[in-house]
Model the fold of this input.
Amino acid sequence: MVPFVFEWEWEIGRLIFMGLLYMVLGAISLGMLYAFVKTWLDLRGKQ
Amino acid sequence: MKKDNNNRGARYGMVIDLDKCTGCGTCVAACASENNVPVMYDESDKTRSINWLQIYKIINGKEFPNIEVAYIPRPCMQCDNPPCVPVCPATATKRDPNTGIISQIYTRCIGCRYCMAACPYHVRSFNWFDPPFPKGTERSLTTEVSPRMRGVVEKCSFCHHRLMSAKQRAYAEGRRELREDEYIPACAEACPVNAITFGDLNNPKHKVSQLIKSKNAFRLLERLGTEPKVYYLSSKGWVRRMADNYLQGEFEGRN
Amino acid sequence: MDLALIPNGVQRCSIKTFFSWSILWLAIIAWGVVSAFFCLYKGLNQTNMNQYFVFGLWIVFDLSLIALGAGAFFTGFLTHIIGEIFIYPYRDNLKAVVNAAVVIGFICYSSAIAMLGVDIGQPLRGWFIFWHANVHSMLTEVSFCITVYLGVLTIEYLPIILSNRKLGEVPELNLFGNNLHHIVALFAAAGTFLSFFHQGSLGGLYGVLFGRPFAYREGILIWPWTFFLFIHSAIAAGPSFILLCIWVTEKVTRKKLVNKGAYLTLAKISGWLLAFYLVFKIMDTVGWAYGVVQRAGLSFMDFYEGPFSIWLLIAEIGIFGIIPAVILIIPRLRNMNALLILGALMNVIGIVINRFAFTIQTLSIPVLPFEDFLSYFPTWQEWGIGIGAIGYGVLLFSLSYRYLPIFPMEPELSPVKIFGAPVKDFGVVKGG
Done:
């Protein structure tokens, strides 16, 4: 799952699969983070 | 489906002489006893039974007096191109490049049964029940083989624990090479007619590597490309024909 | 009693009526929960699966639910991504159904994952798929993608929940919902990417089984042709399923919720996708029959000797494939309400038959020449979980319909009327 775990191998299949997975997870997390931060900033702005 | 063929290590395989096999079932009993294969409380539904080694009975379809019967003991084929290994989602099964044996990690198996769907030989069994070991039966268990829990898949391992024991003994004696008779699975050892020969297919001195060159040697479902390491010998053409699927005239054309 | 929770400008039945409606589905869910308890406590011997039939009703349900839930990502893709690039007349029609599509998608995926949790022999070890992932297995790919996609669906469901009248009064939640909605295209894109891969990998599950000539397909690179066929059939069936769910909702609530244009758009998308799918499917079947099958030493009719006759294939491609495709493509036929619904229903049935054939038929067919064909029928516990999932779906959709504005056109199409005049701001009319 992650490089520092037993059985991890730096092979192309794993790099492609995990690479794409983490990219998507990252994009979704950034989107959620944006929504939270923007809401917090908007609320602070209103005050 | 990448081929994990490593000819530098050993490739343990089996040759079963169907001309000798009487279908007595001693190999099955020995296997079950050696590997702590559980028996359910109600074994009447054979489709739920766990059989690492299963014996099939085939007939040539002719009428008396031309009817002939053959028995095919079927352990895990330990394929060199296993259909089950690449499909396991939790990496609970792997082909060992040094021995060619397909291992199963019982404590990692999540019981999705995808490997069972993939295997065309049905060598894999699932524990549909919690295996019962009533009080007292634990004394008959082989200590080197872990019993399995409910919800995991198990299969023949070519008595891998015997390989480990043999290697330890050899190492204690100061050598790395195993003699041909030092590592034999329980089924091969138990067979009363010596129908099962076991050894390293990569080692030209082992009997198995010579037997597989016979014109009577064949494997089950060879056309699928699984590269099984269990070979069969039969002098009867109809038996060899039953090992695989053939279109009209194909078998006769190939042989 | 729950006036304040009902969206603006729409009418809902009384809470007593709603409760009576819910009781039925709660009973079905209860049956599902009891079945799940038995399977988790006593083990999978509660099913009729065995060493040969290792996949059963639940896997068929899972695959069908996920195929039908594809409408969520596809309408999202068409609305939020294609719609932003190419302005076209169908976008408004799709916007009328996209919220309902998200709810339907959420229901389908959450039920599928719950069912999978019971289906594996060691549910507590389910996380091993993620932690000890075998990247070469199609099942790993499926598990990752459907789990992450359920997260995406939850995120897309959130703004709909937060647009509830009462929740929307809380400024923080209102703002958060709006901000999430501004970036919906990001989540739609992520959802499209994930869905493409898991719909495909579900097909890949069967296509890579080179030990089972019935299921095995050649393909391109690591992807068997079933990878692409499953994506295609899912996006063909998904919009039809949304269409059917909306139609059933309209019939049950006796209200108009979307305009005819929305129905026709969904039908057109479904119809054309189905038509092209059938072309590829027939090509694939012929290629497989002359390629994989013959190389395995089998003939095409060998697979149809057992409990499944050739009629299953004829049903899948012909009766529930070509006929609905024709109905949904031809505008004159599509415009007739009865045929529209029939076409959508037959489309959905055809795709379910396809999923059934790949799962159950594959397992019933022996590969070793001396083995027999087998048959299987699920136990009440298996049916309980499958039907319980449907009950959960109906209940959740009912709750969403009652309290959330999932049909933006409803206030306009089914306005609340008092003494014949439409009223904008009332929740419910008593006695209704």
User: Anything to note?
Assistant: Helices of chain B lie at 26-34, 114-118, 160-172, 186-190, 207-211, 237-241, 250-254. The two ends of chain B are 29 Å apart (CA to CA). Chain B touches chain A at residues 91 (CB under 8 Å). The CA atoms of residues 93 and 104 of chain B lie 5 Å apart.
